[in-house]
Amino acid sequence: MNLPPPDLLPVVLVVDDEARSREAMRRTLDEEFHILEASQAEEARALMERHEVAVILCDQRMPGVSGVEFLKEARQRWPEAVRIIVSGYTDSEDIITGLNEAGIHQYVLKPWVPDALLATVRAAAETRTLQRSLQRLDVDLRTATPVLRQRRSEALARARAVFDFERIERAPGSPLDGVCAMAERLARYDLPVLVLGESGTGKELLARAMHYASPRAAQPFVTENCAAIADTLLESELFGHKRGAFTGAYDDHPGLFQRAHGGTIFLDEIGETSPAFQVKLLRVLQEGEVRPVGSATPVPVDVRVIAATHRDLEAEVRAGRFRQDLYYRVAGVTLSVPPLRERLGDIAPIAQRLLHDVGLELGRTALRFADDVAPVLLGYPWPGNIRELRNEIRRAAALSDEDIVPARLFSLKVLHGQAGVSAASGNGHANGVALPASGTLAQRLEAMEAMLLREVMLRLRWNKTHAARELGLSRVGLRAKLLRFGLEEK
Ligand SMILES: Nc1ncnc2c1ncn2[C@@H]1O[C@H](COP(=O)(O)OP(=O)(O)OP(=O)(O)O)[C@@H](O)[C@H]1O
């Protein structure tokens, strides 16, 4: 066994007036402990003053002060040292009465057995080590708590600033003003809120702003997209699971409801959930407790629910696809976020804000739109709403070599003002070409056909099989067109 050097061994003080007893103890313990010896209380006090003693091993019968008396004193003066009394049967009465007052850890009966004594002293030394770590933790905690509290409140202030209703970009007099005013009022209360709106309209942004304006702001805001995962997974994600509940469940796993305890959970696309899942969710909302998959024990949760859907949930209820009782649970109040095409005025301020954000992402803070951008953005119906607008702006900004981002760098579908063109224009990077501004219809169509082909080929990395499939052409037909337009991989 590797032993630490003697000066690192825990110190044990043996107090006994009989030299032979002290010697026997030293022999038993000195491989693992640094032994100090005292033949009476006065000597023991002097040693205690000079050394950091982990364990006191004290005989009960000593001339003058008894063992228990000395240990009582030791408890007052050196409370950290763990105290053990050594005694014969006849002393047990005295010891039992003094046991509590002296705070004695263990009591060793004479004649003692070496292995048992060693085990007792080891346990006492371990107790001392544990006490020390606890004390250190306590100190750490006391000094750290104000720092943690400070950091927490700073983080909360930052989150509040970012997710403030004011930061939901919109034009003065926007239809969103009313929605935001209502959401801000509702934020204070625990009423369940259902947010309706097409994909990408900012439903989650609104839910976040409500959370950070609510009394729950210092607790977590947790989101789940109910459409993104299968039913069984959704159940385990939201409600948690016990270890072994299913193949691959190696550990107990707290669900999102538990993680959101005290805060808010945002259930996006709630209209996509199955009837079986809806029953389980209803139970959680009614009873205020979740039952992790594979567990019989429910866990109480205090969570505010904000749900969202792009569907007409009332129609879903009428069609029997969404449970009416669950609908009433989640739709305490309904807020509708209008699509971007119904608030054209918002497009310019939102686009400016998004360009600013993209500039930060790209490290190009001087980015600005050219004058021809606004009419283009206004002429497109934005079926993917603000998320689509953000993607378009990101793409145009990335393609622009200049700080001024021109309209021609937006994708064809946007330039055309037609959502339907998207299938052909996609997310390609080839669209650095302006639309044909003159010529006959046939000439312009031909120019556009060439642009489309070029965009598709670049996007698909000149894979003719994939391009032909996407465009509904044969490979031979595609090759003929590429030849006619002089398009080839550079
Ligand atoms: N008014 C706004 N001002 C600035 N950014 C916005 C605004 N509305 C939405 N966004 C941004 O648009 C993106 C999409 O918004 P969000 O995720 O909230 O939409 P959603 O309706 O929840 O979409 P989905 O239902 O598809 O999840 C986000 O990056 C969001 O920050």
From TrEMBL:
GO terms for biological process: phosphorelay signal transduction system; regulation of DNA-templated transcription. Residues 11-125 form the Response regulatory domain. The modification 4-aspartylphosphate is found at D59. Residues 182-398 form the Sigma-54 factor interaction domain. It comes from the Bacteria. InterPro entries: AAA+_ATPase (IPR003593), AAA_lid_NorR (IPR058031), CheY-like_superfamily (IPR011006), Homeodomain-like_sf (IPR009057), HTH_Fis (IPR002197), P-loop_NTPase (IPR027417), Sig_transdc_resp-reg_receiver (IPR001789), Sigma_54_int (IPR002078). One of its GO terms (molecular function) is ATP binding. Keywords: ATP-binding, DNA-binding, Nucleotide-binding, Phosphoprotein, Transcription, Transcription regulation. This is Sigma-54-dependent Fis family transcriptional regulator.
